[in-house]
Specification:
Elements lengths: L1 H20 L12 H4 L5 E5 L1 H7 L1 H6 L10 H11 L7 E5 L5 E6 L3 H9 L4 E6 L2 E6 L4 E5 L3 E6 L3 H9 L8 H8 L8 E5 L2 H4 L3 E10 L3 E10 L6 E2 L2 E4 L8 E8 L1 H4 L5 H11 L5 H7 E24 L5 E21 L3 H10 L3 E3 L4 E3 L6 E4 L3 E5 L6 E4 L3 E6 L2 E11 L2 E9 L1 H5 L7
Antiparallel strand pairs: 1-2, 1-8, 2-3, 3-7, 4-5, 5-6, 6-7, 8-9, 9-10, 10-23, 11-13, 12-20, 13-14, 13-21, 14-15, 15-19, 16-17, 18-19, 21-22, 22-23
């Protein structure tokens, strides 16, 4: 009897524990977060829309850009609230090599955006995989929303993008997004773009990041590049052409220590640059071996030069003869300097043989350049179409180039081992003239 009672007590205790612990109970499934839904892409980014509106406020107002009232901080904030959009949290961006792009925006109230979209007669209702979405034909933009988010996409791969975003699971953040969001580069910036683009990898660039800064007249794109191996390059001080106080022209200044670069000709960065030059038949290996790392170039304005030419004339007996004459012509002003070593002379002969350089009795030309005077010393060669340029020492690595009336300036800020930091700065004024509100 006692044994039976003991067995009953043990069974009752076990049953109680079983009911309490409920090992068969299903785990609660958490909804995926926005970061779990983000698709892989060639370019990915994060934008803080409200902070960006604050930062570019001086820029768009000073230049009177069109639609500037719609880029105002207060306007964006009020509109986002009326649409149920949360712009106080990041907007996630993604783009592809073929030009397609998209973004995912967090929603506070899906019903508000759904109501507003339903009132828009320009949108076409479509369906895929049991999911309803909208299509704006004029700009070829697809629109999809659920309780947590709004998806916008322009491109030809919407069905696959929609499937990836909608069918995601909690905790399944793609590796590229996980790495990007966990890095400190350009933290606290209003707009950050990262790239694992395959064309960058051809040059050994593991990843690249970009952020935006601006003032009332210029935009600066800050860039960061991470290479899979060292760049084998370092900044140095070297001879540079003096450009004057405020040159409105194109110039290039490069001052690099390339000794290590010369010793790593199998490095992917070296090989890919060589491949690009090979397309034009340029002897890149010979050039690198004969170059000492300094290149300075300036182009701007015009200068006069004497041009020699031949003309057919009749002699005293009316026989046609060729007569050499000269005339003053105006040509673009070019100045260039290259530091060299004793291996340059064989390279120079090779460039002449391949047609890169042509010479006459007075001047020389490089490809389609105007006639250039040449001054060659033991450690440098100078070419110029006007008067001989003044030379000074400089340690900046920068390129300035004018394109369609806008001046772009690229500056190497720092290069260290496998990391490179650079800035691209350009004026918004010419671009703004094409996008200005006309007052009547």
């Amino acid at each position: 009897m006692i044994r039976k009672v003991g067995v009953i007590i043990i069974l009752a205790t076990g049953l109680g524990l079983l009911l309490y612990l409920k090992p068969w109970r299903e785990e609660s499934i958490q909804d995926p977060r926005l970061i779990d839904r983000l698709p892989s892409a060639d370019f990915i980014g994060v934008m803080n829309s409200l902070e960006l509106a604050k930062e570019i406020s001086d820029l768009i107002n000073s230049n009177k850009l069109k639609y500037r009232q719609f880029l105002n901080y207060d306007f964006l904030l009020s509109q986002s609230r009326s649409l149920g959009i949360n712009l106080q949290n990041p907007v996630y961006l993604f783009g592809y090599e073929n030009g397609s792009w998209g973004c995912i925006i967090e929603l506070n109230d899906e019903s508000k955006i759904a109501s507003r979209l339903a009132q828009n007669t320009s949108l076409t209702k479509l369906k895929s995989g049991g999911l309803n979405y909208l299509y704006y034909k004029e700009d070829k933009i697809y629109i999809f929303h659920e309780k947590q988010y709004l998806l916008l996409y322009q491109g030809d791969n919407f069905v696959n993008i929609l499937s990836r975003v909608h069918k995601s699971n909690y905790g399944e953040v793609s590796s590229e997004w996980s790495n990007f969001l966990g890095k400190d580069n350009f933290k606290n910036k209003s707009l950050i773009i990262s790239s694992n683009w395959k064309k960058l990898k051809q040059f050994g660039i593991e990843k690249a990041s970009f952020s935006l800064e601006s003032d009332s007249t210029h935009i600066k794109l800050k860039s960061y590049f991470k290479k899979i191996s060292p760049f084998y390059l370092a900044s140095k001080t070297g001879p540079s052409i003096l450009k004057g106080v405020s040159p409105k022209g194109n110039y290039v200044n490069i001052h690099l220590n390339i000794d290590e670069f010369k010793n790593h000709k199998k490095d992917i960065f070296y090989v890919e640059i060589k491949n690009q030059f090979r397309k034009y038949g340029f002897p890149f290996d010979d050039f690198i071996e004969s170059w000492q790392g300094d290149l300075s170039f300036f182009e701007g304005g015009t200068t006069s030069t004497t041009e020699f030419y031949k003309e057919t004339e009749l002699d005293d007996e009316f026989n046609p003869i060729m007569v050499e004459k000269e005339r003053i012509v105006f040509v673009p002003m070019y100045s260039s300097l290259l530091t060299i070593n004793d291996k340059f002379h064989p390279l120079y002969k090779k460039l002449c043989a391949r047609g890169f350089i042509t010479e006459d009795s007075q001047n020389m030309r490089f490809l389609t350049s105007p006639p250039l005077k040449k001054v060659m010393k033991k450690d440098r060669i100078m070419l110029f179409s006007g008067k001989k340029p003044n030379i000074d020492k400089e340690d900046k690595n920068e390129i300035q180039w004018w394109y369609n009336g806008t001046c772009y300036k690229l500056e190497l800020e720092k290069i260290s081992n496998d990391e490179l930091f650079a800035n691209l700065r350009f004026s918004i004024q010419t671009i703004a003239k094409q996008n200005t509100l006309v007052s009547r």
